[in-house]
């Protein structure tokens, strides 16, 4: 009985076949656009503040209405309170330890960025955000930027 084996393919032929296949199935334009948009959201040289579990303190707002988040990196803490209002989202935050003059935050969504100067007590607020993904960038004079991980907010 004779056994038939498929012809062997050398490396050059395999690479040429892969190149041909790649040329016939280009990346869709909308995928390239989304990739470029995601790349534009990066903050070079930034440290990422990791989320830390928080409990809703007694006497603050109802846990059904407000969501509290805390992010830390090193000694820096960014605390956020997220409150749904008429299908949109209000965000109030505090940076600690007390920030130096000129400290700013950027509350970013994939489609818009709202910048605020942080008060002397470390507080800031942004109202009327669309629901969806957001991240906060904290910029302090003399320090590298700090970004929170992306978090999804719902009204």
UniProtKB/TrEMBL annotation:
Domain of life: Bacteria
Protein name according to UniProt: Uncharacterized protein
Species this protein is from: Streptosporangium saharense
Lineage summary: Bacteria, Bacillati, Actinomycetota, Actinomycetes, Streptosporangiales
